[in-house]
Specification:
binds NADP nicotinamide-adenine-dinucleotide phosphate; 11 helices; alpha/beta
Length: 291
Protein backbone atom coordinates (compact mmCIF):
# COMPACT_ATOMS: atom_id res chain seq x y z
CA UNK A 1 0.00 0.00 0.00
CA UNK A 2 1.48 3.35 -0.94
CA UNK A 3 1.42 6.43 1.25
CA UNK A 4 -1.09 7.93 -1.17
CA UNK A 5 -3.40 5.00 -0.60
CA UNK A 6 -2.98 5.54 3.11
CA UNK A 7 -4.02 9.16 2.82
CA UNK A 8 -7.21 8.36 0.96
CA UNK A 9 -7.99 5.48 3.30
CA UNK A 10 -8.05 7.69 6.36
CA UNK A 11 -10.04 10.49 4.79
CA UNK A 12 -13.50 10.35 6.34
CA UNK A 13 -16.64 12.27 5.60
CA UNK A 14 -18.38 13.84 8.53
CA UNK A 15 -21.52 15.95 8.14
CA UNK A 16 -20.62 16.89 4.58
CA UNK A 17 -17.09 17.90 5.65
CA UNK A 18 -14.04 15.84 4.94
CA UNK A 19 -11.95 15.11 8.01
CA UNK A 20 -8.61 13.40 8.18
CA UNK A 21 -8.48 10.65 10.74
CA UNK A 22 -4.76 10.84 11.41
CA UNK A 23 -3.44 10.03 14.81
CA UNK A 24 0.03 9.90 16.22
CA UNK A 25 -0.02 6.16 16.28
CA UNK A 26 -1.64 5.71 12.91
CA UNK A 27 0.68 3.55 10.93
CA UNK A 28 1.54 2.94 7.35
CA UNK A 29 1.16 -0.75 6.69
CA UNK A 30 4.01 -1.60 4.43
CA UNK A 31 4.07 -4.47 2.02
CA UNK A 32 6.89 -5.94 4.09
CA UNK A 33 4.39 -6.35 6.91
CA UNK A 34 5.82 -3.73 9.24
CA UNK A 35 4.28 -0.53 10.52
CA UNK A 36 5.67 2.97 10.51
CA UNK A 37 4.05 5.57 12.78
CA UNK A 38 3.26 8.62 10.63
CA UNK A 39 5.10 11.20 12.75
CA UNK A 40 8.56 10.88 14.31
CA UNK A 41 10.67 12.89 16.69
CA UNK A 42 13.95 13.76 14.93
CA UNK A 43 16.93 13.87 17.28
CA UNK A 44 19.68 15.39 15.14
CA UNK A 45 21.62 17.98 17.18
CA UNK A 46 19.68 17.12 20.30
CA UNK A 47 22.39 17.10 22.92
CA UNK A 48 20.16 16.08 25.83
CA UNK A 49 18.16 13.44 24.04
CA UNK A 50 16.71 11.30 26.82
CA UNK A 51 14.32 13.92 28.30
CA UNK A 52 13.16 14.93 24.79
CA UNK A 53 12.38 11.34 23.81
CA UNK A 54 10.59 10.74 27.11
CA UNK A 55 8.56 13.93 26.55
CA UNK A 56 7.75 12.77 23.02
CA UNK A 57 6.58 9.37 24.26
CA UNK A 58 4.39 11.22 26.79
CA UNK A 59 2.95 13.32 23.95
CA UNK A 60 2.14 10.14 22.04
CA UNK A 61 5.00 9.85 19.54
CA UNK A 62 6.05 6.26 18.95
CA UNK A 63 8.73 6.86 16.33
CA UNK A 64 12.23 8.29 16.86
CA UNK A 65 14.67 9.11 14.08
CA UNK A 66 18.25 8.68 15.31
CA UNK A 67 21.56 7.90 13.55
CA UNK A 68 25.04 6.69 14.43
CA UNK A 69 26.29 10.17 13.57
CA UNK A 70 23.95 11.86 16.09
CA UNK A 71 25.70 10.03 18.94
CA UNK A 72 22.47 9.56 20.86
CA UNK A 73 21.43 5.97 20.18
CA UNK A 74 22.23 5.07 23.83
CA UNK A 75 20.09 7.94 25.12
CA UNK A 76 17.18 6.88 22.89
CA UNK A 77 17.46 3.33 24.24
CA UNK A 78 17.54 4.59 27.83
CA UNK A 79 14.47 6.76 27.26
CA UNK A 80 12.63 3.79 25.79
CA UNK A 81 13.43 1.59 28.81
CA UNK A 82 12.43 4.32 31.25
CA UNK A 83 9.15 4.93 29.38
CA UNK A 84 7.76 1.50 30.26
CA UNK A 85 6.50 1.04 26.69
CA UNK A 86 6.74 -2.34 25.00
CA UNK A 87 9.42 -2.67 22.35
CA UNK A 88 6.79 -3.54 19.77
CA UNK A 89 5.00 -0.24 20.37
CA UNK A 90 7.87 1.94 19.24
CA UNK A 91 9.63 2.35 15.93
CA UNK A 92 13.28 3.35 16.09
CA UNK A 93 15.53 4.32 13.20
CA UNK A 94 19.29 4.53 12.89
CA UNK A 95 21.59 5.22 9.93
CA UNK A 96 25.16 4.66 8.89
CA UNK A 97 27.06 7.58 7.40
CA UNK A 98 29.29 7.24 4.34
CA UNK A 99 32.57 7.16 6.22
CA UNK A 100 31.42 3.84 7.76
CA UNK A 101 30.06 2.33 4.54
CA UNK A 102 31.32 -1.00 3.18
CA UNK A 103 30.33 -4.61 3.80
CA UNK A 104 32.30 -5.52 6.94
CA UNK A 105 32.04 -2.09 8.53
CA UNK A 106 28.27 -2.02 8.06
CA UNK A 107 27.83 -5.45 9.67
CA UNK A 108 29.97 -4.29 12.59
CA UNK A 109 28.21 -0.90 12.68
CA UNK A 110 24.75 -2.47 13.01
CA UNK A 111 26.00 -4.64 15.89
CA UNK A 112 27.45 -1.58 17.61
CA UNK A 113 24.21 0.36 17.15
CA UNK A 114 22.24 -2.54 18.64
CA UNK A 115 24.57 -2.51 21.61
CA UNK A 116 24.30 1.22 22.13
CA UNK A 117 20.49 1.16 21.91
CA UNK A 118 20.34 -1.97 24.08
CA UNK A 119 17.89 -3.48 21.57
CA UNK A 120 17.59 -6.91 19.96
CA UNK A 121 16.61 -5.28 16.68
CA UNK A 122 16.36 -1.87 15.02
CA UNK A 123 13.13 -1.08 13.17
CA UNK A 124 14.65 0.87 10.30
CA UNK A 125 18.28 1.18 9.34
CA UNK A 126 19.10 3.69 6.63
CA UNK A 127 22.09 4.41 4.48
CA UNK A 128 22.50 7.92 5.86
CA UNK A 129 24.02 9.48 2.78
CA UNK A 130 25.20 8.33 -0.64
CA UNK A 131 28.62 9.97 -0.60
CA UNK A 132 30.68 6.75 -0.54
CA UNK A 133 30.25 5.95 -4.26
CA UNK A 134 28.34 3.17 -6.01
CA UNK A 135 30.52 0.19 -5.03
CA UNK A 136 30.54 0.96 -1.32
CA UNK A 137 26.85 1.88 -1.33
CA UNK A 138 25.95 -1.51 -2.77
CA UNK A 139 28.30 -3.33 -0.35
CA UNK A 140 26.57 -1.46 2.48
CA UNK A 141 23.18 -2.43 1.15
CA UNK A 142 24.21 -6.10 0.86
CA UNK A 143 25.28 -6.07 4.52
CA UNK A 144 21.95 -4.54 5.55
CA UNK A 145 20.08 -7.27 3.67
CA UNK A 146 21.99 -9.88 5.65
CA UNK A 147 21.21 -8.13 8.93
CA UNK A 148 17.56 -8.09 7.98
CA UNK A 149 17.64 -11.81 7.17
CA UNK A 150 19.16 -12.34 10.64
CA UNK A 151 16.26 -10.32 12.17
CA UNK A 152 18.64 -7.68 13.51
CA UNK A 153 16.91 -4.97 11.55
CA UNK A 154 13.29 -5.12 10.56
CA UNK A 155 13.36 -3.13 7.40
CA UNK A 156 15.88 -0.91 5.73
CA UNK A 157 16.05 1.91 3.31
CA UNK A 158 18.18 4.29 1.39
CA UNK A 159 18.20 7.91 2.44
CA UNK A 160 18.63 9.11 -1.13
CA UNK A 161 17.60 8.64 -4.70
CA UNK A 162 19.88 5.74 -5.58
CA UNK A 163 16.99 3.37 -5.70
CA UNK A 164 17.33 2.20 -9.25
CA UNK A 165 20.96 1.37 -8.59
CA UNK A 166 19.77 -1.01 -5.86
CA UNK A 167 17.12 -2.52 -8.10
CA UNK A 168 19.57 -2.94 -10.99
CA UNK A 169 21.99 -4.78 -8.70
CA UNK A 170 19.21 -7.33 -8.07
CA UNK A 171 18.54 -6.42 -4.43
CA UNK A 172 15.16 -6.11 -2.79
CA UNK A 173 13.99 -2.50 -3.06
CA UNK A 174 14.09 -0.43 0.13
CA UNK A 175 10.82 0.20 1.91
CA UNK A 176 11.65 3.74 3.01
CA UNK A 177 13.42 6.71 1.47
CA UNK A 178 14.34 9.62 3.73
CA UNK A 179 14.96 12.95 2.01
CA UNK A 180 14.85 16.66 2.76
CA UNK A 181 11.24 17.54 2.08
CA UNK A 182 9.13 20.60 2.93
CA UNK A 183 7.17 23.20 0.97
CA UNK A 184 10.32 24.93 -0.32
CA UNK A 185 12.05 21.71 -1.42
CA UNK A 186 9.48 19.20 -2.65
CA UNK A 187 11.69 16.69 -4.50
CA UNK A 188 8.85 15.87 -6.88
CA UNK A 189 10.56 13.32 -9.19
CA UNK A 190 11.87 11.32 -6.20
CA UNK A 191 8.52 11.46 -4.40
CA UNK A 192 6.67 10.33 -7.52
CA UNK A 193 9.12 7.46 -8.02
CA UNK A 194 8.74 6.33 -4.40
CA UNK A 195 4.96 6.52 -4.42
CA UNK A 196 4.81 4.49 -7.64
CA UNK A 197 7.12 1.88 -6.13
CA UNK A 198 5.49 1.53 -2.70
CA UNK A 199 8.36 3.22 -0.91
CA UNK A 200 7.43 5.28 2.15
CA UNK A 201 8.76 8.84 1.91
CA UNK A 202 10.14 10.26 5.15
CA UNK A 203 10.52 14.05 5.27
CA UNK A 204 13.53 15.48 7.03
CA UNK A 205 13.81 19.19 7.89
CA UNK A 206 9.99 19.20 7.68
CA UNK A 207 9.81 22.53 9.53
CA UNK A 208 12.63 24.06 7.48
CA UNK A 209 14.86 24.21 10.56
CA UNK A 210 12.49 26.78 12.04
CA UNK A 211 12.73 29.19 9.06
CA UNK A 212 9.01 29.55 8.59
CA UNK A 213 8.54 33.29 8.31
CA UNK A 214 7.27 33.05 4.72
CA UNK A 215 4.18 35.19 4.13
CA UNK A 216 2.13 32.32 2.63
CA UNK A 217 2.85 30.06 5.61
CA UNK A 218 2.22 32.74 8.24
CA UNK A 219 -1.04 33.81 6.60
CA UNK A 220 -2.27 30.21 6.45
CA UNK A 221 -1.22 29.80 10.10
CA UNK A 222 -3.33 32.83 11.08
CA UNK A 223 -6.30 31.52 9.12
CA UNK A 224 -6.28 28.15 10.93
CA UNK A 225 -5.12 29.64 14.27
CA UNK A 226 -2.07 27.34 14.25
CA UNK A 227 1.61 28.06 14.35
CA UNK A 228 3.69 27.92 11.13
CA UNK A 229 5.34 24.62 12.11
CA UNK A 230 1.94 22.96 12.46
CA UNK A 231 1.03 24.18 8.95
CA UNK A 232 4.24 22.75 7.44
CA UNK A 233 3.74 19.43 9.27
CA UNK A 234 0.09 19.15 8.37
CA UNK A 235 1.00 19.80 4.71
CA UNK A 236 3.53 16.96 4.97
CA UNK A 237 0.98 14.55 6.44
CA UNK A 238 -1.65 15.44 3.84
CA UNK A 239 0.93 14.78 1.10
CA UNK A 240 1.29 11.25 2.54
CA UNK A 241 4.83 11.79 3.92
CA UNK A 242 6.20 10.75 7.31
CA UNK A 243 7.59 14.00 8.80
CA UNK A 244 10.42 13.86 11.36
CA UNK A 245 10.32 17.23 13.21
CA UNK A 246 13.16 17.82 15.66
CA UNK A 247 12.63 19.74 18.84
CA UNK A 248 14.42 19.75 22.15
CA UNK A 249 11.79 22.12 23.58
CA UNK A 250 9.03 20.32 25.52
CA UNK A 251 6.26 22.75 24.48
CA UNK A 252 7.23 22.37 20.80
CA UNK A 253 7.50 18.59 21.07
CA UNK A 254 3.82 18.70 22.05
CA UNK A 255 2.66 21.40 19.62
CA UNK A 256 4.43 19.73 16.70
CA UNK A 257 2.22 16.71 17.31
CA UNK A 258 -1.07 18.60 17.56
CA UNK A 259 -1.92 18.12 13.92
CA UNK A 260 -5.01 16.02 13.85
CA UNK A 261 -7.91 18.35 14.55
CA UNK A 262 -7.69 20.52 11.47
CA UNK A 263 -7.31 20.05 7.75
CA UNK A 264 -5.74 22.32 5.16
CA UNK A 265 -8.19 22.89 2.34
CA UNK A 266 -7.22 22.26 -1.27
CA UNK A 267 -6.65 25.95 -1.96
CA UNK A 268 -4.16 26.27 0.90
CA UNK A 269 -2.46 23.00 -0.07
CA UNK A 270 -2.05 24.47 -3.57
CA UNK A 271 -0.57 27.71 -2.13
CA UNK A 272 1.95 25.65 -0.17
CA UNK A 273 2.67 23.45 -3.20
CA UNK A 274 3.48 26.61 -5.14
CA UNK A 275 6.32 27.50 -2.71
CA UNK A 276 8.60 24.82 -4.20
CA UNK A 277 12.02 26.19 -5.13
CA UNK A 278 13.56 22.85 -6.06
CA UNK A 279 17.10 22.27 -4.82
CA UNK A 280 17.48 26.00 -4.12
CA UNK A 281 14.88 25.59 -1.38
CA UNK A 282 17.01 23.04 0.54
CA UNK A 283 18.29 24.05 3.98
CA UNK A 284 20.49 21.00 4.70
CA UNK A 285 23.08 18.96 2.80
CA UNK A 286 20.37 17.41 0.57
CA UNK A 287 22.80 14.97 -1.07
CA UNK A 288 20.30 13.46 -3.52
CA UNK A 289 22.42 14.07 -6.59
CA UNK A 290 25.65 12.45 -5.41
CA UNK A 291 27.44 10.20 -7.93
N1 LIG B 1 18.89 11.70 6.61
C1 LIG B 1 19.48 12.87 6.74
O1 LIG B 1 20.51 13.15 6.12
C2 LIG B 1 18.88 13.90 7.66
C3 LIG B 1 19.29 15.24 7.55
C4 LIG B 1 18.72 16.18 8.40
C5 LIG B 1 17.76 15.80 9.33
N2 LIG B 1 17.40 14.46 9.43
C6 LIG B 1 16.38 14.01 10.42
O2 LIG B 1 15.26 14.87 10.36
C7 LIG B 1 15.05 15.50 11.61
C8 LIG B 1 14.49 16.90 11.41
O3 LIG B 1 15.38 17.71 10.65
P1 LIG B 1 16.16 18.95 11.29
O4 LIG B 1 16.36 18.69 12.72
O5 LIG B 1 17.35 19.20 10.47
O6 LIG B 1 15.16 20.18 11.03
P2 LIG B 1 13.65 20.54 11.45
O7 LIG B 1 13.00 19.44 12.20
O8 LIG B 1 13.00 21.06 10.22
O9 LIG B 1 13.89 21.81 12.42
C9 LIG B 1 14.43 21.71 13.68
C10 LIG B 1 14.64 23.14 14.21
O10 LIG B 1 13.38 23.80 14.33
C11 LIG B 1 13.17 24.23 15.66
N3 LIG B 1 11.76 24.01 15.98
C12 LIG B 1 11.17 22.89 16.44
N4 LIG B 1 9.85 23.06 16.59
C13 LIG B 1 9.58 24.33 16.21
C14 LIG B 1 8.39 25.09 16.17
N5 LIG B 1 7.23 24.57 16.52
N6 LIG B 1 8.48 26.38 15.74
C15 LIG B 1 9.69 26.92 15.38
N7 LIG B 1 10.85 26.23 15.39
C16 LIG B 1 10.79 24.94 15.82
C17 LIG B 1 14.08 23.38 16.52
O11 LIG B 1 14.44 24.10 17.69
P3 LIG B 1 14.30 23.49 19.17
O12 LIG B 1 14.91 22.14 19.18
O13 LIG B 1 15.07 24.49 19.97
O14 LIG B 1 12.84 23.47 19.53
C18 LIG B 1 15.26 23.18 15.58
O15 LIG B 1 16.12 24.31 15.62
C19 LIG B 1 16.44 15.47 12.26
O16 LIG B 1 16.40 15.69 13.65
C20 LIG B 1 16.90 14.10 11.86
O17 LIG B 1 16.29 13.13 12.68
C21 LIG B 1 17.93 13.53 8.59
Amino acid sequence: MSSLTLASKVKLSSGGQTMWNFSLKLTINRYLGHFIPVLALGVYQNYDTKPSVLEAFKAGYRHVDSAQMYKNEAAVGEAFRESGLDRGEVFITSKCASRHHGYESTLKGVDESLQRFGFDYIDLFLIHDPLSGKEKRLDTYKALQEKKAAAKIRTFGSAVKHLEEIRDAGFEMPSVNQIELHPFCQQRPIVEYCQKNNIVVEAYCPIVRGKLDDEVITSIASKYKRDPAQIALRWSLQKGFVPLPKSATPSRIHSNAQLYDFELDSEDMARLDALDRGKDGAVSWNPVNAD
